[in-house]
Design the sequence.
């Protein structure tokens, strides 16, 4: 049999790689000017507007006016260190976000060196051959070389929502051009790039294609509320401290300095920094597992996911379709046999495939089949549509013979070809038996046509049923274990597929999904919202589901109270992806529209990557909560030690230089230690967190305050006992500050996990933690025992035994938290 052809030019090689590299260097990347990046000087200006910087600068200026040049210089040097740390931290976060933008930028399918390759959109150059397919966003302006029912949505440029037909024979007019940023809504085609970047049509009219920035997440809103609350409380305490100092000890300037010092100590600047850093770096960590984050709220919601809806083909299975069997002449045979009936059946199925197939089933059929007896031209397409679960093509060969081929869902093809009732019943029984074996079955029919123009509906053609082709797509080896992990984690995996119910049930069984009850698309369509919400709570497998019905299922799951993660790849999946709490688009086979609608993009289409992402999402949320608890706790002793000396008549304990020292411990602990903390080994053995759970409820806030109060009591006790036992003020201050620093480090250890005790979590590596501990201990030793530094801190070296006892008091002040964890663990039943 001769190969089938379409009215197109011979196969094209496109640019060679070396030429593409040369043109990219000459013309620049295919991108419009992006939003301004924060350079070093911009970051410096931003830092100089920060409250901590302003407070430090004001305090340094006051000391300078008082003639205390030494203290002013120390604080000025601290300003430089604060600036350096902040700039480095901001650049780290920006680099992570830039890396994510590069990874998740639009992709383009081009022909280079005669091979189709998918490249980043910015790498497209003039002369590239763009492969245009339904659902893709056009990467650059191009001249249409081939068009197969090609239609585009150009509303981004024209505001006109009606799709525009594109024709390779339209000369140089708009009908033969496709433009950057427009969307292929139907058909396929090939175009030669004529303009990129700012030289494209959208670039010339000054439009911006930069993605809209995501709105504030629930965590961001809650953190903002917490910052406002703490800021108001801190302001009130600062004013109170200044008033008390003036009332009890006099001195207006000293009182102002007392209030400023407390303001520096209580400033809640770390809270938004923690959230920004954790989500940005967390998204980068997720990308290393093959999942790109397009919207940060998706990261936030991962830990709360209760239902994971996924497709079968390519997600649970290997997306490696193979034509294995054929049912022709009333019996099953190997698809590779030379039996004439089988060869005719497979050849007809191939005629109903796209010549440049993207669908894995169509590729498998084309690799196994032949074309028509003589070269033929494709004259008419009948695509998959609502109510027509099949694809039909009308052909005309060189002899003038016109014929059509159709392949699709068995029930659809059988309804079209209308065989005798007994043959139809037999064929449906055969289809059910094959589906029960996990085979994907397609009905095939053919007809001759000599009635003039092709009819508008394929139902008007005189089809003759030929039989079935059966394809197999094995379940990925790692899927059953991943689904079992989801089950242990309280995440219900739901399979939604367009396959026959028997096929869906068989694949579900192989994957470890309960397929005892299967709900089909027609049944879903016939249910009212209340009945569907009840049905989805007990159903794990949905078959014969059309893309638009996925939205109904997502809304029903949401109505049932679930937090829904949803995978999808097609244009019609976009509404469901957007409606789900977490939309997950397929990176390999997904369309641009699906990727734009989703919050996450699965690079390799591998289900196990989703499970890894859920684990990482739980880790990120846990680490944010642990860091926030530490931040609340660490500020309590600072506030307490600003007031107790005033009320008890003791010398002032804390000065600006002490606050700066502590900030150099607190900031790295938040942005390095807690962010790098590994996930709890039992993270996937507990149920998802309730979606309405607050980052800080009354109980967790009470725990944080009590942790800080324990350290405060220890510091106050050491300071008071040292003064009462004849220690000098500078020795007593050194002892109390050592207690505060030891308590601070103990708080870091205690808050690394809200479940594991300190001895248990010591076995979990965290290099950043030990680096900070070593640096803090060394800095503390220098501050106490090196005379020139001790003078800056107003310290004198105390006896080593006293110093050891003070540090021990700080460490043991939080030991009760381990007992609390053990008691809570014992009283909580295992999931």
Sequence:
């Amino acid at each position: 049999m001769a190969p089938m052809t379409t009215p197109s030019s011979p196969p094209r090689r496109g640019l060679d790689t070396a030429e593409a590299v040369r043109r990219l260097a000459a013309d620049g990347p295919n991108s419009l000017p992006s939003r301004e990046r924060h350079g070093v000087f911009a970051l410096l200006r931003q830092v100089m507007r920060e409250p901590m910087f302003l407070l430090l600068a004001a305090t340094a200026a006051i000391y300078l006016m008082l003639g205390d040049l030494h203290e002013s210089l120390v604080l000025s040097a601290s300003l430089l260190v604060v600036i350096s740390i902040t700039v480095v931290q901001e650049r780290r976060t920006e680099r992570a976000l830039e890396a994510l933008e590069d990874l998740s930028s639009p992709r383009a399918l081009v022909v280079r060196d005669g091979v189709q390759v998918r490249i980043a959109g910015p790498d497209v150059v003039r002369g590239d051959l763009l492969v245009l397919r339904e659902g893709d966003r056009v990467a650059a302006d191009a001249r249409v070389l081939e068009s197969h029912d090609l239609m585009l949505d150009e509303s981004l440029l024209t505001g006109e929502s009606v799709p525009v037909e594109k024709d390779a024979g339209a000369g140089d007019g708009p009908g033969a051009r496709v433009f950057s940023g427009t969307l292929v809504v139907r058909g396929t085609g090939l175009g030669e790039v004529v303009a990129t970047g700012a030289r494209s049509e959208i670039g010339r009219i000054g439009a911006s294609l930069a993605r809209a920035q995501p709105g504030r997440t629930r965590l961001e809103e809650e953190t903002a509320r917490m910052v406002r609350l703490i800021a108001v409380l801190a302001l009130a305490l600062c004013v109170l401290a200044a008033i008390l100092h003036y009332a009890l000890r006099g001195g207006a300037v000293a009182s102002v300095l007392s209030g400023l010092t407390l303001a520096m100590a209580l400033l809640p600047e770390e809270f938004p920094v923690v959230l920004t850093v954790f989500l940005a770096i967390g998204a980068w960590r997720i990308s290393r597992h093959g999942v790109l984050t397009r919207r940060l709220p998706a990261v936030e919601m991962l830990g709360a996911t209760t239902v994971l809806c996924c497709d079968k083909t390519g997600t649970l299975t290997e997306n490696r379709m193979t034509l294995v069997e054929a049912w022709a002449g009333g019996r099953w045979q190997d698809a590779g046999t030379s039996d004439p009936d089988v060869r005719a059946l497979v050849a007809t199925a191939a005629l109903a495939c796209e010549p440049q197939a993207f669908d894995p089933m169509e590729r498998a059929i084309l690799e196994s089949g032949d074309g028509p007896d003589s070269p033929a031209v494709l004259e008419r397409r009948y695509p998959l549509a609502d109510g027509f679960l099949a694809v039909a093509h009308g052909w005309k060969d060189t002899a003038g013979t016109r014929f059509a081929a159709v392949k699709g869902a068995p029930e659809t093809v059988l309804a079209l070809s209308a065989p005798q009732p007994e043959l139809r019943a037999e064929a449906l029984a055969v289809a059910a038996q094959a589906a029960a074996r996990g085979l994907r079955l397609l009905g095939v029919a053919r007809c001759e046509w000599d009635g003039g123009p092709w009819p508008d509906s394929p139902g008007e053609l005189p089809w003759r049923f030929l039989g079935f082709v059966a394809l197999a797509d094995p379940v990925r080896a790692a899927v059953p274990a991943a689904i079992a992990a989801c089950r242990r984690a309280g995440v219900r995996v739901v399979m939604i597929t367009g396959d026959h119910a028997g096929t869906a049930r068989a694949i579900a069984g192989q994957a470890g999904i309960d397929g005892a009850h299967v709900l089909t698309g027609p049944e879903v369509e016939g249910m009212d919202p209340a009945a569907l919400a009840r049905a989805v709570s007990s159903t794990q497998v949905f078959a014969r589901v059309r893309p638009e019905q996925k939205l109904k299922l997502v809304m029903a799951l949401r109505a049932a109270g679930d937090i829904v993660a949803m995978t999808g790849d097609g244009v019609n999946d976009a509404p469901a992806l957007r409606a789900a709490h977490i939309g997950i688009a397929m990176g390999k086979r997904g369309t641009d529209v699906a990727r734009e609608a989703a919050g996450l993009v699965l690079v390799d289409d591998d289900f196990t990557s989703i499970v890894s992402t859920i684990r990482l999402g739980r880790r990120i949320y846990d680490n944010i909560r642990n860091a926030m608890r530490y931040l609340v706790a660490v500020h309590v002793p600072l506030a307490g030690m600003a007031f107790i000396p005033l009320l008890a008549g003791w010398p002032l304990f804390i000065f600006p230089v002490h606050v700066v020292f502590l900030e150099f411990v607190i900031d790295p602990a938040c942005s390095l230690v807690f962010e790098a903390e590994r996930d709890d080994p039992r993270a996937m053995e507990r149920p998802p967190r309730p979606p309405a759970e607050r980052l800080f409820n009354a109980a967790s806030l009470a725990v944080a305050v009590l942790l800080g109060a324990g350290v405060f009591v220890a510091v106050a006790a050491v300071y008071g006992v040292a003064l009462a036992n004849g220690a000098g003020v500078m020795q007593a201050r050194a002892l109390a500050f050592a207690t505060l620093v030891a308590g601070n480090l103990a708080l870091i250890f205690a808050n690394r996990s809200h479940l594991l005790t300190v001895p248990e979590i010591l076995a979990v590596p965290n290099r950043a933690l030990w680096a900070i501990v070593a640096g803090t201990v060394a800095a503390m030793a220098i501050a106490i025992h090196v005379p020139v530094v001790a003078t800056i801190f107003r310290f004198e070296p105390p006896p080593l035994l006293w110093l050891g006892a003070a540090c021990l008091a700080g460490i043991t002040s939080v030991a009760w938290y381990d007992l609390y964890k053990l008691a809570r663990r014992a009283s909580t039943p295992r999931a």
About this structure: Confidence is low (pLDDT under 50) at residues 1-10, 206-215. The longest helix spans residues 607-648. Residues 245 and 574 are 63 Å apart (CA to CA).
